[in-house]
Amino acid sequence: MEELLPLGTIITVKGQEEELMIIGYYPVDNNRLYTYTACLYPYGIDDEKTILITNDKIDKIHFYGYQTQSLYEMRKKIAGIKDLLLQSKKPEEIINALKENNDENKE
Question: What are the residue boundaries of the structural domains of the chain, listed by start?
């Protein structure tokens, strides 16, 4: 599993010229799990034009978003449930595992 790109990262996907900015992680649509939520750059968020992307569709990274300790900590949490992410066919299981992992780390 590749490391998650920081929010604010500017990418292009295979077969497309438009630049996209990553604005979220692990969206689920029609019971399918994606790696990122993105929007058109430089236009920003538009509910009708939110784009869902998987890692294998990324062609080029133009700019890496802001990175802090919080990003590295989140990556560690996700790595803690890596096997579930890779093996699960049910996105709701992944979402529940992420929530449980987050709740355990708050205690």
Answer: 7-66, 67-107
Query: What whole-number distance in Å separates Cα of residue 80 and Cα of residue 17?
Result: 35
- Hey, what amino acid is at 93? E
pLDDT tens sequence across 19-30 = 999 998 888 788
Q: What is the C-alpha end-to-end distance of the chain, expressed in Å?
A: 27
> Average pLDDT of the chain?
82
Put simply, whether the predicted model's pTM sits higher than 0.85 gets the answer: no
Which secondary structure element, helix H or strand E, spans residue 61, and what is its range?
strand 58-63
Separation of alpha carbons 18 and 11, rounded Å: 9
DSSP assignment letter at 8: T
Q: What is the mean pLDDT of residues 46-70?
A: 91
With residues binned 3-state (H G I as helix, E B as strand, rest as coil), the percentages for the chain, rounded to 5, are 35, 25, 35
